[in-house]
Specification:
The chain has no helices and six strands. With 89 residues, the protein is mostly beta strands.
């Protein structure tokens, strides 16, 4: 089994000092890792999200800490064997 494809994320400020990150489910993915930090290629694991947390339209939404300032976010997808995709856009 190969690792899933990388998610495509859409990030935008909420106006309340947070960043909202949204992506759609990836084929063969069972979980997602959210990486967050103040460098362009963050490696700090911020959240682990399971398929059970999908919205009714099949998308996922994650919010950063309040007053995040300038931050970078990227997401990976994992399959049932915990094989991790490349990082998202």
């Amino acid at each position: 089994m190969a690792a899933p494809a990388a998610p495509v994320i859409h990030a935008m400020p909420t106006g309340g000092g947070q960043i909202r990150v949204r992506w759609h489910a990836v084929d063969d993915a069972t979980d997602y890792n959210v990486y967050y930090g103040d460098t362009a290629a963050p490696t700090g694991l911020e959240a682990e999200i399971s398929d059970a947390e999908a919205e009714s339209d099949g998308s996922f939404i994650w919010f950063s800490d309040v007053d995040a300032g300038m931050v970078f976010v990227r997401v990976t997808a994992l399959n049932v064997l915990a094989e991790e995709s490349d990082y998202s856009n």
